[in-house]
Amino acid sequence: VEAEPPRRHNGPVAEGEGADGRWIGGRLNREAVVLLGLGLAGVALFALTSMVVDHHLEARERLGREWFARGESALGAGRPREALEALRTALVYAREDRRAHFRLAQALLADGRVPEARAYLLGLHEREPGGGPVNLALARLEARSGDVAAAARHYRAAVLGTWEDEPLARRVETRFELAELLVSGQALDEAQAELIALAAEAGADAASRTRVGELLLRAGAEERALLEFRAALRRDPASFPALLGAGRAAFEGRDWARAVSYLRTAARERPGDPEAASLLEVAEAVLAADPFRPRLSTAERARRAARAAEASAARVAACLPSADSPELAALAQRLGALGDRVALERALRRDPDRLEPAMDAVFAAERAVAARCGPPPGRDRALLLLAAEPEAAP
Amino acid sequence: VRVPRGRLGDEQLFLLLSVLLGVLVGLLVVCFRVAIEWGRIAMLGSSLDPGWPRVVAAPVLTGLAVAALVRWVFPLSRGSGINQTKAALYVYDGHIPAQTVAGKFVTCSLSIGGGHSLGPEDPSLQIGAGLASAAGRALRLPREKLRLVAPVGAAAGIAAAFNTPITGVLFVIEEVIGRWSVGILGSVVLAAVSAVVVERWFLGADPLFRVPAYALGHPTELVAYAVLGVLGGLASLLLARWVIALRRRLGALPGWTRLLQPAAAGLLVGLVALRFPQVLGAGYEQVDLALHGQFGLGLLLALALLKILATGACHAAGTPGGLFAPTLFVGAMVGAAVGEAAQSLRPDLPVAVGAYGLVGMGALFAGVMRTPMTSVFMILEVSGNYSIILPVIIANALAYLVSRSLHPTPLLDVLARQDGLHLPSLEEERERTVLRVESAMRPPRGAPLGEEATAAAALEDLAATGGSFALVRAGGEWGGLSREHLRALVEAGRGGERLGALVAEAALPALHPDQPLDQALRRVQGWPLLPVVHRADLGRLLGVVSLADIVDAYRRESPGGAGSGGRAPDG
């Protein structure tokens, strides 16, 4: 350490000055002058500092904006690494810029640096626990890692959180994502609850209603789904997705007549669509095969039941060699005991009361064959679908 | 001499001066920080990762420039500034040339802005001390006050630099002044608070570091923090030894090489920064990234080692700039590395890497600066996060103990000795054993006499016990009479006089066993011996102590002092 030797102030005392160096008497004393000087220096330095700092903060703000724009541009162009550097630099100049923090986390995610992104997002979440975008990003991160509960928690926080632009649309979109997650995670009750709330929030346009309906359908709420599709069709009667959705909802709800109606319209709207055509074919087959439909003549009921018994017997016979099941063998005997198609049809015409036991045997055979040899394809599913109806259960 | 009405007393003047100094120092430190950043942007550009020409050229050119400035314009601007401030206090009667303030401002703005691996806090401390010293001289403060005014400015400087008033006060008390006294504490606090208010007025009240959420995942995590404390102590040792060794080597080179040493250090920093630009400058941005888990384990360890390398080179080369920021940088990297390791070892625990980084900063600071209290409060203040106190205390204490046990003399003391200055080591002062009365006292030869006893009886008692001084308990006070005095009384026919009346005029000061021995030394003057009594029962005599006993105790405790063995019989 180098330092000058001290300059001691033990020199002669000036006129009018006390022994301790302070001015005395009626004159302004020395300490007052020095203190005043220090005060004036402080004022001058304050003014100078104000100017310097104003300029400095302006420059920082400008640099922050510039680097943020560079980061945005790089992120938009799919260059996450470049975006990372730019956004980190932006944060040097705008430390509290939440947008930059958030975009940095997104850049980290885009660069595959999930732990770092998570750390950033958690930091942002700590400072802004009610932030919509942060919670949404965290929800996606948790969903990606398979933690459905944590993801749902963040999605819900995002739904209830604050959004700077288009908050309603963001909340609706977030709730859609949440519903998707819950449906995919088989949390169907929770999904239905979210979708009921979503039905009230989402727009009244056909696309939104259709989207809600499709999710409700996947969540196992066919009736509510049908209501949403019908609402969509009221807005746009020619909407193919809504027609198909309504057809599927009716199909899932075993309202075969309504399913056929919607699916026929859908098939007319888009003739080549394989899903509509396939569903329509099956639904029509179910309608055509059902001997219990109202307003059928006894002869028609007998004819349908006899054909069903014949088809089931054929399927049991085909499955029996590979399944080697005593139950199937017993069912084959039971169906054989009904007689051939012509005899059975005649017997059922004579005695309509035998229709129900005969169909019981058919349904039992269809269920057993499906369990052992798999469900039949296409329109052959009709009997199995009828067998699965609650009132058809043994 | 008539003192005019309304004139300020010395204490009031000093307090007012402290506030004014705090404001002025705060303003200067704000300008200093802005100047450093302008320098950085001008020389290295606004990017965190400057291109290679700037990375190499800026530290080298600024190294040449500051070497020339230090050589020909500001010769007192070398180094960090803490020892210079201590020297002003203990050697130069509080005198720091005003030129040092300008020199430190200009040279450090250049060096730190140019990428040298040094920090702005220690220079801020010296800027504050220099300004205060100049003001004190202008006010013609008495010598004692002039000595103390520099630390007042130093506290303002460090408080404004860190935006931490408590740290400013504690550091100056713990490292510069070394004692708590009401007179100086008020001034230091006022100056520090004023400086921080000014700093926050201009630059905002945000803490220096933004730290992610912290929660102790599991009590076993404290083991990881303890490991961090030990590693922090070792890292601080590495930094200290590297600085000391390199400084000794460079100091032994011919004088003309001082013109080139900062540039050479700058070249080293530039070459390292080609691959690791994070080592440039104070590095607070990088600390922020480390606290947010942005660096992997390998990079964290590499940065810690490279920062030690670069900082040691810059400091040893005499480049103006401080050690605080690099110390915190290394601590953050070591801490975050331990956090990353803990996370990989226990992925089931929610390990907060940022919290480890923060604790690591405190551990390094405690290990390098040897100011354990300051390091704890600094971490709390710079983060604004008080929930982390437990890990901070554990890690800091361990780092301090490890560093102290492996390198007993603190870095700053060694640096001062390298400069030929033997400044008092405040750490050694704190650790010095305080001798107490119990070390010197011995059992009384007999029971004290009561106030009803006569002079003749007292003389007989002394003859029986072989003592030379009779202790008397009279009227709730202690008194005493020598054998000669008693004999004279008896020979004068006054042997029947009561001792209570004889000792009433001169009460004997009593001591307690836990009192420092220097207090006993001051009180024993003029008395053959003093009573040592119980604190809860002042009439209960525990022992006696004489001047010879005290001297004997000091002699026994002095280094190499074998003691006098037996004691002269007395009392």
Task: Give an overview of the whole structure.
The complex is a heterodimer of chains A (394) and B (571). Chain A has 394 residues and is mainly α. The longest helix of chain A is centred in the first third of the chain and has 47 residues, at 30-76. Chain A has helices spanning 30-76, 80-93, 98-110, 114-127, 132-144, 148-160, 167-184, 188-201, 206-218, 222-235, 240-252, 256-269, 274-289, 298-323, 326-337, 341-350, 355-373, 381-387. In chain A, 74% of the residues lie in helices and 0% in strands. With 571 residues, chain B is mainly alpha-helical. Chain B contains 24 helices and 5 strands. Chain B has helices spanning 10-44, 52-72, 82-90, 98-113, 121-138, 143-162, 165-177, 182-203, 221-251, 261-275, 284-291, 297-316, 324-345, 353-369, 372-383, 389-406, 411-418, 426-431, 437-440, 455-465, 483-491, 499-503, 517-524, 547-557, and strands spanning 449-450, 469-474, 477-482, 530-533, 541-545. In chain B, helix 1 crosses helix 6 (143-162) and helix 12 packs antiparallel against helix 13 (324-345). Classes of the chains: A mainly alpha (394), B mainly alpha (571). Chains A and B meet through helix 1, helix 2 and helix 4 of A and helix 1, helix 3, helix 5 and helix 11 of B.
